[in-house]
Amino acid sequence: MNEYENAIELRGVNKTYKDFGLENVSFIVPKGCIMGFIGQNGAGKTTTIRSMLNITKINSGEISLLGLDHVQNEAEIKKRIAVVFDDLPFHDMFTPKDIAKILEGMYPEWNNNVYSDYLNRFELPYKKKIGKFSKGMKMKLQIACALSHNAELLIMDEATAGLDPVVRDEILHIFMEYLQDGERSILMSSHITSDLEKIADMVTFIDKGRILLTGYKDEIIEQHGIIKCGYDKLTTIDSDDIVSIRTNNFGAEVMVNNKEQALSKYSDCIIDPANIDDIMLFYVHRYDKEWLR
């Protein structure tokens, strides 16, 4: 089995559609890491994931998963990774028992004992047709399947969307268990940033098909801050420091891209910490001179 440093590498990936495209998309997911892949609906998250899986053919660039070329080594890669989409890819007539028989033939390392343990843990009936499952049950079934064949890389597209907070928390805990040996990695696409705040080591932010930020989550959060000030102060803030400005009835909130520098330059202003949600919002509005709360 090949040794690799990065579970995922995208270098200069381009994909052009009539009214949308991926433009020079580049980022890495080091082995043993959870990457939160964030962006609005329609930002390019699913297109990027489909490109990695060679479902969508890219126009140019390079993609490698587990150190292997995503096209030349597609069959080997797909035996060693697990993918969870927001829709269950099995027919409603199947039961979890039927699905185990199908996947046992597809994955060399499929483990029925692990699968049964997850079904029990998620309280999923073994012989009930999945057409009668709720959305939450279907998602838990997908995750049980994904974690039952010793996958080295787990790719999830909005996997926790539509689940209640208690179930989401349980699933995040299971993902942390899955990563404990340091040899496995996760790419987790989500617009629920609170989930990613809890478990992600790194974040990559995509908007309109372009990567705006990628790196270690704590460093990105530490780097940004929000200045709260009156309108009269706005002219004193250097435009190079500003991501965007949100106005309200009381004044303005200005996201700055270097909080430490801003603390010394604008010492008479209050500078609040920013979370991932704030950073995403202010970057989405980066081309607006000012935007309303």
UniProtKB/TrEMBL annotation:
Residues 2-233 form the ABC transporter domain. Coiled coil: none annotated. The keyword Glycoprotein does not apply. GO terms for molecular function: ATP binding; ATP hydrolysis activity. PROSITE patterns: ABC_TRANSPORTER_1, ABC_TRANSPORTER_2. Pfam families: ABC_tran (PF00005). Keywords: ATP-binding, Nucleotide-binding, Transport. PANTHER family: ABC TRANSPORTER ATP-BINDING COMPONENT, ABC TRANSPORTER ATP-BINDING PROTEIN ALBC-RELATED. This is ABC transporter. It comes from Ruminococcus albus SY3.
